[in-house]
Amino acid sequence: MQSPQKLTQLTETHRPTLDQALEAIRTRAYWSPHPEHPKAYGESAAADGLAAFEALKNTRFDLSDQPGTDGWVGGSASEGGEVSPYGPELGVSYPHADVEVLLPAMRAGMGAWRDAGPEARAVVCLEILARISARTHEFAHAVMHTSGQAFMMALQAGGPHAQDRGLEAVAYAYAEQTRVPEAADWSKPQGKRDPLNLSKSFVAVPRGISLLVGCNTFPTWNGYPGLFASLATGNPVLVKPHPRAVLPLAMTVKAAREVLAEAGFDPNLVALAAERPDEGIAKSLALRPEIKIIDYTGSTSFGDWLEAHARQAQVYTEKAGVNTVVVDSTDDYKGMLSNLAFSLSLYSGQMCTTPQNLLIPRDGITTDAGAKSYEEVVGDLAKSVGGLLGDDARANALLGALVNPDVKARLDAAAGLGEVALPSREVTHPDFPDATVRTPVIVKLDGAKPDAEAAYMSECFGPVSFAVAVDSTTAALDLLRRTVREKGAMTVGAYTTSPEVERAIEEVCLEESAQLSLNLTGGVYVNQTAAFSDFHGSGGNPAANAALCDGAFVSNRFRTVEVRRQA
Amino acid sequence: MQSPQKLTQLTETHRPTLDQALEAIRTRAYWSPHPEHPKAYGESAAADGLAAFEALKNTRFDLSDQPGTDGWVGGSASEGGEVSPYGPELGVSYPHADVEVLLPAMRAGMGAWRDAGPEARAVVCLEILARISARTHEFAHAVMHTSGQAFMMALQAGGPHAQDRGLEAVAYAYAEQTRVPEAADWSKPQGKRDPLNLSKSFVAVPRGISLLVGCNTFPTWNGYPGLFASLATGNPVLVKPHPRAVLPLAMTVKAAREVLAEAGFDPNLVALAAERPDEGIAKSLALRPEIKIIDYTGSTSFGDWLEAHARQAQVYTEKAGVNTVVVDSTDDYKGMLSNLAFSLSLYSGQMCTTPQNLLIPRDGITTDAGAKSYEEVVGDLAKSVGGLLGDDARANALLGALVNPDVKARLDAAAGLGEVALPSREVTHPDFPDATVRTPVIVKLDGAKPDAEAAYMSECFGPVSFAVAVDSTTAALDLLRRTVREKGAMTVGAYTTSPEVERAIEEVCLEESAQLSLNLTGGVYVNQTAAFSDFHGSGGNPAANAALCDGAFVSNRFRTVEVRRQA
């Protein structure tokens, strides 16, 4: 049974945060309730978090109250369980669900969850996020040892930034559901006769079960928007993690189930669907009639498949893209180089937002440090990356580990695609000797040569960038347009001191629906977006069919049912 | 060139109306700026409107400035032109477009239309609606003589009600685009270091060309929401009318082009695509890469085809459904009967919202006039319909004409589906002897008999209703649920005096996402919805994938592109 006292308490606790989030998505000024600094979580948080993570290793993950468990999956590496990109096996086993039992159980609590209304759902979601936030250090280790992110990035991107994106989705969901009042009196004048009177009620109703298909690199950051958008709009959420990144989402599911139960809702509104190796459960789940919403981050091929085949569901996808930086001119050459070097290095380029193609006029560019030839720009960028990552400790802190062997294979192959301006370097991790840590490679390509096009016109996910020589900035813009239109882009960057060029780049991005960062030379990078202010993706080019987070991301996750009565 | 003075003037004129519309969609109280009474349009409006309509007959419709005209279509009946369901040929010819010329021309003005911003687009749309509103009588004749609606209905539903729905879409589009500010300053604290500062701009960008595939019965009412939602969000709109209902939308296109040109925008942002008989242009247009949005009202088969195949576009469909009224009990038996009789009769049941299946317990119902058996309820309803339509003048004013021979064929066949409780009657129209005017048939079916199910479980569009005898109200609710889930429903009605039954019906409608009208016994009918207050469809059952009008109807017609710069 629902607990009114608990809900009142949650509303008192979280309503101010919700209101601030609603204000932030309106003004899009900087705001976050989730601290980035590891020390903000308390004296013992670091040690406690590590201990909690270590205690999970080599255990059966406790979701004993989830219905339909018909076995266990994961476990040791030989059983197909998670192995950290840093080397250690996690050894965690997860319950495997009989969906014929689990899906009906997930639907059972829908009515009460719907009837609770948008505010109750929002504050329950905020309590889930608060519980997760309190365990940010523990989540950081779980994200680090599934994604390969370096610890600090795992803590920030996997912790507060992911929680921000979840909260942002809750705020959008709440705003969308409350655009229509709960009730309205309607009185239509009829001249001299009595008016026609109706009393109307409006209820936000869920679509059905929402399926989250998680990804390997950002299990929480990419997972939370869809999870919380669906839950806050009344839908149960079935979480199907990437087989190599189960733990962060299993912990999330468990936290959600605990909060739901404490507030008197059915914990089965959130459930885990872990899978056996090669079971490919996402494909069969995606076509189940009970599944009405799907959130997916991953390959273009499976994203396209979902969009084409899961016709009974609303499908939100983030797929592959080819991100471009146009280098035309700059009044801060050094800043540009260091900013780009950081962007290429962060998490070994394993972000969907990392620049891949740097388009540089073959006749060079003008800068505050004088004219620079194409060769000079590429050489200086290579030096900048080399300098940034010259120290192994710093390199490890920035790069993290390669998430899987496919990334390493692509990196190894990249050197054969053109002239290598900066070779990749193997970095040893002091604590994790089995980690595969590599600095990015920069490969020179001639944009005018057809055989180079195969390389720069496809996504080469990982620490690989192409310094593409183009005939002119105009040619760069043509290539930018074609790349976004045909391949999609999560980000576009550009450096120019020319107002005309700036306008032309903006026009391409407006026409092709790509998010643009101009002249970043300081501590903000093209591959980072801030919840409440920046949109992640646009939903208007092939890289993604949705943006995080806008009205469209939430408005179709529920429907409004009206009941009107003669008054 | 854009005319700043004209835009300022339009803003001064229409901003107050826009603000009132924004307030109305938030409160959902009664509001409309478009008068329903024919006399509200001025002394000479009736005569002027008729004359203007008559002057259009047997002419080439003037869209001489639309590019790519490669011939003329329509014309006389033998050429495939429009023939009024009341008999007369319209004889209007329309330009046929070479889409290879027209589509690029429609894209040419997109940039300026996008740059004008949401408010300018909204007030231009409101000016288009104002021009149409001023010609409501002329539009009434055009709607009457294409849809077969009676004059008064054609005036109201085809005029002010359609204009209301268009304005509602503009208001939603404006609200959605302005949820994000045009610009934001973002400053992220960095402890003791300087904050990170960015200046950001946000632009609503269009998807591409929007295709409106019009319908025969409500060319303006069902067409305006998609047309204005797309135009107001920056998209050019190509209007492909139903071949039997071209004129009202051609007039709309012409009005839109005039206003766009006067305000300094490219008139080709709105264009007409009339077709040769059997050309089937909707199918080929729908798959063109330039078409990014499609609005469609019509058959389930083509709606489903669009959803499955026009994958490059956002597709909004209103398809067939089976509307149900559950009759459990009433405290106003007479009111119920007369309300239902009107609902079944209006426009000969040719509304997507007309009730088809009346579910009545075979053991009868309780009423304020005593217990009534199933036979009595059906008999009394038949009498009520008979009484309402007994007078030919009144019958003609309510029924209008059958829109096409298919409807008549279904009506004729219906009498063979079961025992006829009320036979259809042929009504002669005093002014239009060739009009096919028929009163509705009511056929009795036994809900427990499998052979009856084929009849009541499919849409029988037209003046056909089934009085379905069910075992109990519980059985009625089971059948209601199954009907909505499998066949969809634009409307559900119910009569009950029992709070328990009321809650149970509401629960079915909430779970199956159907719009419910309870105990209507006065002057509001289940088949009518009012813009700004009532949702038309829910978008959550098979009858339609969108509701008129909510956030989801507009939020995916544009994308938001952010440009961020280091500040």
From TrEMBL, chains A, B:
Keyword Magnesium part of the UniProt annotation: no
Gene Ontology biological process terms, A to Z: L-proline catabolic process to L-glutamate
MF annotations from Gene Ontology: L-glutamate gamma-semialdehyde dehydrogenase activity
Keywords annotated in UniProt: NAD, Oxidoreductase
GO terms under cellular component: cytoplasmic side of plasma membrane
Pfam families on file: Aldedh
UniProt xrefs under NCBIfam families: PaaN_2
Protein name in the entry: Phenylacetic acid degradation protein paaN
Originating organism: Streptomyces candidus
